[in-house]
Amino acid sequence: MKIQSVSIASAVQIAIEEGNAVKEISEVWTKVNQVVHMTGKMSAATRLRIKSEVPALRHWESAATPQNPAIEGFMSDQDKVGLSFPG
Fold this sequence. Notes:
Blueprint: H1 6-17, E1 22-26, E2 34-38, H2 44-53, E3 58-62, E4 71-76, E5 81-86
Helix pairs in contact: 1-2
């Protein structure tokens, strides 16, 4: 499946270069067109590289709840495509 955002695709490439991998790409969301899910946590180096090299993306974090684990990632608000890392 093709990533529908050039900015998110760039961020995914950075994550892969830093040792992560794509777990799945989902398109069953109401407020976004697509989410790329990574297999591993986002390292500090990956976060800094993405923020520096792909400044159009918005970083987000979600704390753990009793029902859901912590996650973080980046969002292309323009393309409505997200990138998610387990926390």
